Amino acid sequence: MPGEGAGSTGDPCHGPILRVAVDTPVATLFDYLPPPGPLPSPGSRLRVPFARRETIGVVFELANHSGLGSERLRPALACHDPQPLLGRADLALIARASAYYHHPIGEVLATALPALVRQGREPSAGTARHWQLSAAGAATRPGRAPRQSAVLDAFAAAGGCLSEDSLRARFPDLPRLLRALAAKGWVTASESAPASPEVPGPPGDGIDAQIIDSTSGLLLSPDQQRVLEAVGAAPPGHSVHLLEGVTGSGKTEIYLRLIETALAERRQSLLLVPEIALSDQTLATLAERIRAPVALLHSGVGDADRARAWMAAARGEARVVLGTRSAVWTPLPDLGLIVVDEEHDASFKQGEGLRYSARDVAVLRGHIAGVPVVLGSATPSLETWANARRGRYRHHRMPARVVAREAPAVELADIRGQVLDGGLGPRLLLTLARTLTEGGQALIFLNRRGYAPVLMCHACGWSATCPRCDTHLTWHREADHLRCHHCLSQRRTPQRCPQCGGEAPTAVGHGTERLMEVLARRFPDVPALRVDTDSTRLAGRLAQSLAAIRSGAARILVGTQMLTKGHHFPGLTLVAVVDADDRLYSPDFRARERLVQLLLQVSGRCGRGEHPGRVLIQTHHPDHAVFSHVLRGEYAPFADAELAERERLGLPPRTFAALLRAEAMDAGTPLDFLESARQLGAVSSGQSVRLLGPIPSAMARRAGRHRAQLWIEADTRDALHTWLRGWVPGIGQLALARKVRWVLDIDPQEVL
Question: Which of 49, 233, 441, 690 is the most interior residue, by most CB within 10 Å?
Answer without folding.
Answer: 441
